[in-house]
């Protein structure tokens, strides 16, 4: 290496260090003055620092940190400090998180009395953790949940990294990707990766069962105490210059009850008021939209979420990395071919790939994750396609194009009538048979009173059979 290249490398490292220090200062400053931080969409002259007042590389770093572009945010992580953490470093960090998360659950529960003392105790515990560099908390996590050789830079990890490190995202947000796309692992990796880059932040990941996780994190004897403890703790942390980044994974994918909605609104208002961030990881855009619509400006889908749920599947290269980590390089071509998702998006889901490895069961086109209100609100668009009888037991696609039913339907009987109108059929709607495709690829007939809770995409369409096609060919 030449003297010039050494000098260039040293200068590059020095610049990166300066940038990271400035970003840390920026995040800490945002806790106290969230309206004054540099915005990714702030018009010129409106709370935005003039570009000329900063060196070019510093101004660019600020832009990247707050840019809604996921790729730009990921690039900052990859190129700053020492780059991505190694698998060994991640494993060590996760082991430490497991150990320290257990100590969090040893704290006394709030019984409804002496709120200031309870909040003071939690705040002090968090302060001490941050002083020791222990700023990731995953209560209830189990050993073995993080793969020994995790695949890095997957679409959802990039999304979570971009959301978590953006200091302008305050309030409550909902992000989404399909079931089995590796959301939990991606969120864990993002938290571990950003821990050193966000030293004044407490990053918390809570998984499964909303009420249980609220009690676990806020240390409550009864979930009904959530509102008063959350408001007080959020205010206390802000006074100490600590930003909370609280993630809930796999908790609100089904229809929300009134208590869930009220609790989420409380968290959203308190997070927005005190410059914290609450993020829900869900399985469908419908579930995300339901959360985003709960409380006006304090709940939303972040601008970084610009893709459909299926677009967060893994690429061929990422899935190949998974197979290599499992010691299956020799069988990779066959596994990749057989475990690709058979719809217009293609790609791979790690869970589907692992299921194929274990059972040789190929994945089918996905059914939509249960969306909020799916069982109680009429569907506005339902895709359907005609089937023909293949033999006495099986049905198959007729070859006709799928089409949309745009009128509201709540059950299969409504869907029959809508198909009869749309196709201008000369048969009674009651004679039409409706089918839904199962995970094994087979078509199963639906009863007339069954709720219409799928068909939001063409790949998940209902099938229908007309009377003259219901008999097997002779």
Short description:
The protein has helices spanning 3-32, 56-66, 70-79, 87-104, 115-131, 155-164, 183-194, 210-218, 226-239, 258-273, 285-292, 316-325, 332-339, 350-359, 412-423; strands at residues 136-137, 171-176, 201-207, 243-249, 277-282, 299-300, 382-389, 395-397, 403-405, 433-437, 443-445, 462-465. The N and C termini lie far apart (80 Å).
Structural write-up:
This protein is an alpha/beta fold and 474 residues long. It has three domains: 3-79, no CATH class; 87-312, Rossmann fold; 382-469, Phosphatidylinositol 3-kinase Catalytic Subunit, Chain A, domain 1 (Ubiquitin-like (UB roll), Roll). Helix content is 41%, strand content 12%. The protein contains 15 helices and twelve strands. It has helices at 3-32, 56-66, 70-79, 87-104, 115-131, 155-164, 183-194, 210-218, 226-239, 258-273, 285-292, 316-325, 332-339, 350-359, 412-423; strands at residues 136-137, 171-176, 201-207, 243-249, 277-282, 299-300, 382-389, 395-397, 403-405, 433-437, 443-445, 462-465. It has a six-stranded parallel sheet with strand order 1-3-4-5-2-6, with helices on both faces. Strands 7, 8, 9, 10, 11 and 12 form a six-stranded mixed sheet that branches. Helix 3 packs across helix 6. It is globular and about 75 Å long.
Whole-number count of domains: 3
The helix-and-strand class reads: alpha/beta
pLDDT < 50 runs, ≥5 residues: 1-12, 28-65, 369-379
What's the CATH topology name of the largest domain?
Rossmann fold
Which range does the strand content fall in?
5-15%
**Helix share of residues?**
40-55%
Shape: globular
Tell me which oligomeric state these chains represent.
single chain
Major sheet summary line: 6 strands, parallel
The residue-averaged pLDDT reads: 82
Could you give the order of the helices and strands?
HHHHHEHEHEHHEHEHEHHHEEEHEEE
* N-C termini distance: 80 Å
Which CATH class of the largest domain applies here? Alpha Beta
Number of strands: 12
Q: Which radius of gyration do the C-alpha atoms yield?
A: 25 Å
Number of helices: 15
In the CATH hierarchy, what is the architecture of the largest domain at level 2? 3-Layer(aba) Sandwich
Going across the biggest sheet, name each strand in turn.
1-3-4-5-2-6
Name of the CATH superfamily of the largest domain = P-loop containing nucleotide triphosphate hydrolases
């Amino acid at each position: 290496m030449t003297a010039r290249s050494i000098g260039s490398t040293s200068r590059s490292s020095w610049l990166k260090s300066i940038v990271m220090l400035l970003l840390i200062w920026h995040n800490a400053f945002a806790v106290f003055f969230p309206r004054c931080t540099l915005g990714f969409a702030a018009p010129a002259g409106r709370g935005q620092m003039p570009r000329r007042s900063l060196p070019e590389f510093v101004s660019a770093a600020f832009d990247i940190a707050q840019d809604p572009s996921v790729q730009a945010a990921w690039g900052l992580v990859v190129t700053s400090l020492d780059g991505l953490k190694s698998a060994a470093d991640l494993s060590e960090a996760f082991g430490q998180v497991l150990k320290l998360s257990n100590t969090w659950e040893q704290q006394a529960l709030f019984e409804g009395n002496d709120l200031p003392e309870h909040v003071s105790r939690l705040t002090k515990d968090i302060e001490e953790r941050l002083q020791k560099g222990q700023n990731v908390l995953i209560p209830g996590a189990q050993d073995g949940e993080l793969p020994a050789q995790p695949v890095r830079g997957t679409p959802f990890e990039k999304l979570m990294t971009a959301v978590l490190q953006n200091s302008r995202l305050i309030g409550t947000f909902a992000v989404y990707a399909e079931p089995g796309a590796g959301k939990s692992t991606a969120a864990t990796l993002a938290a571990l990766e950003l821990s050193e880059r966000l030293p004044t932040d407490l990053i918390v990941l809570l998984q499964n069962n909303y009420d249980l996780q609220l009690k676990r994190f806020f240390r409550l004897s009864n979930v009904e105490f959530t509102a008063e403890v959350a408001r007080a703790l959020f205010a206390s942390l802000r006074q100490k210059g600590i930003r909370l980044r609280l993630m809930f994974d796999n908790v609100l994918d089904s229809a929300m009850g009134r208590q869930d909605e009220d609790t989420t609104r409380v968290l959203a208002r308190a997070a927005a008021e005190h410059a914290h961030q609450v993020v829900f990881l869900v399985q469908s855009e419908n579930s995300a939209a339901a959360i985003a619509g709960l409380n006006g400006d304090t709940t939303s889908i972040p601008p970084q979420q610009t893709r459909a749920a299926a677009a967060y599947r893994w690429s061929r290269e990422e899935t190949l990395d998974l197979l290599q980590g499992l010691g299956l390089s020799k069988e990779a071509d066959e596994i990749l071919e057989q475990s690709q998702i058979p719809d217009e998006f293609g790609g791979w889901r790690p869970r589907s790939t692992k299921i194929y490895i274990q059972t040789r069961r190929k994945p089918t086109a996905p059914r939509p994750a249960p969306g909020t209100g799916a069982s109680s609100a009429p569907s506005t668009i339902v895709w359907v396609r005609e089937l023909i009888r293949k033999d006495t037991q099986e049905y198959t696609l007729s070859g006709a194009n799928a089409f949309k039913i745009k009128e509201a339907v709540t059950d299969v009987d409504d869907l029959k009538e809508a198909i009869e109108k749309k196709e201008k059929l000369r048969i009674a709607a009651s004679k039409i048979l409706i089918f839904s495709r199962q995970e094994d690829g087979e078509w199963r007939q639906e009863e007339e009173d069954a709720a219409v809770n799928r068909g939001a995409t063409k790949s998940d369409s209902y099938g229908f059979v007309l009377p003259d096609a219901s008999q097997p060919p002779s």
